[in-house]
Amino acid sequence: MADNRLVDGTIAALGIGRIGAGVLTWISPRLTARVFGMAADDGQSHYAWRLFGVRDVVIGIGTLQSSGPLRRAFITAGLACDVGDGAAGAIALSRGDFQRSSAGAPVTVPVLAVVLGAWVLRGLGR
């Protein structure tokens, strides 16, 4: 089992990272789209980015403010979202919606979050 301090630090990093990403996405969907290698010049894409943003803020706050089984539930919800985000990025990449040179963030960021989230859940035990 992983060192509890390392697990706790990783949980905090995941929660803070989610909140930061969510706030940035809500405030500046255009900048977020550029970071992810996408064009975001219309209101519809801004709306979609803000949906992602509020989801990440809620999961991040829930992760940081909870404990025990509820914390595990928030981490699991975040992991499920990350798996879905990574799958969406992979589908978009395979369809040619992204060029390989700009697909790093939409695929790599969720994969990293999945690895960390799964490791944390393992470290928390069953």
From TrEMBL:
Keyword Transmembrane helix listed: yes
Keywords for this protein: Membrane, Transmembrane, Transmembrane helix
Segments traversing the membrane: 103-121
The name this protein goes by in its record: DUF4267 domain-containing protein
Species: Mycolicibacterium rhodesiae (strain NBB3) (Mycobacterium rhodesiae)
